[in-house]
Amino acid sequence: MAETTAGKGWVRDGILSCLARGPTTGSEIAHRLGVSKATVTYHTKALLRRNIIEISDVKGVRGGVYSKTFALRPGSLVLARRRAEQEDSRGKLDEEFERLLMSWHLGPSRPPSDEVKMFLYHAYRLLSESDSLDGAVFEEFGSRAGEQLISGSLRFETIGRGIKELAYYLTSKGMAEARADVGKGEAQIVCAGCFENREHGGLVCSFTKGIIEGTLRAKRGGRHTVEMTQRTDPSECVFKMTWGRSAG
């Protein structure tokens, strides 16, 4: 039988569908899916490492070769479904970010801050539906926004002036209440609130941290670090940046 052309996700979904009917050998799975035994072996190893499936039986056949029977681990269908939902949510969120890029570059019908807030709304909605709200995801998309949307509006003649310019830009565009303090080899942007959010240290703050990181990367390369802390009195986020001498 000629091997079916199939993506990684399709093959793994097919393996899980086969095992949902009951324990099955690798050879039987390969026959049902129309793929090679080597392909099934590759994907079952990955599923074993992720504790989604298990080996339920091993039988010896001629020539010292063993035949393995695979089965779903208890509760693994729920786990597999959740991961599939999370991947689907990330795909939809990528689409929302592409819409943001297009709207921004073509001339948004709303102020840029409102365009970003709309994207953040969709991020909350999509990620919460798949139980995958994660600050790292918000930081990743914030970094993409800084690199692809905001950096082009800034000059950055030096990194110190550029950080001041970034803080002013975020404030003037209604994205944050920010101010910059710049020293030798380090600086900080102090933010009293961003995108109408007052939950300091939360997911939106992670997005703002990403904006700073992405903007610096686009303008100065990777020779910097950004750390986020919170002040309780007054309630503010502090984004501390350090860089090497060659970046100054």
Structure overview:
- With 248 residues, the chain is an alpha+beta fold.
- It has 2 domains: 8-74, Arc Repressor Mutant, subunit A (Orthogonal Bundle); 81-247, Muramoyl-pentapeptide Carboxypeptidase, domain 2 (2-Layer Sandwich), CATH 3.30.1380.
- The protein is 53% helix and 21% strand.
- It is built from 8 helices and 7 strands.
- The chain has helices at residues 8-20, 26-33, 37-49, 76-106, 112-129, 135-150, 159-172, 203-220; strands at residues 24-25, 53-60, 66-72, 176-182, 186-194, 224-232, 235-243.
- The strands form 2 sheets. A 4-stranded antiparallel beta sheet has the order 4-5-7-6. Strands 1-3-2 form a 3-stranded antiparallel beta sheet.
- The longest helix has 31 residues, at 76-106.
- The radius of gyration is 25 Å and the shape is elongated.
- Residues 1-7 have low confidence and may be disordered.
Short description:
The protein is an alpha+beta fold and 248 residues long. 53% of the residues lie in helices and 21% in strands. It folds into two domains: 8-74, Winged helix-like DNA-binding domain superfamily/Winged helix DNA-binding domain (Arc Repressor Mutant, subunit A), CATH 1.10.10.10; 81-247, Muramoyl-pentapeptide Carboxypeptidase, domain 2 (2-Layer Sandwich), CATH 3.30.1380.
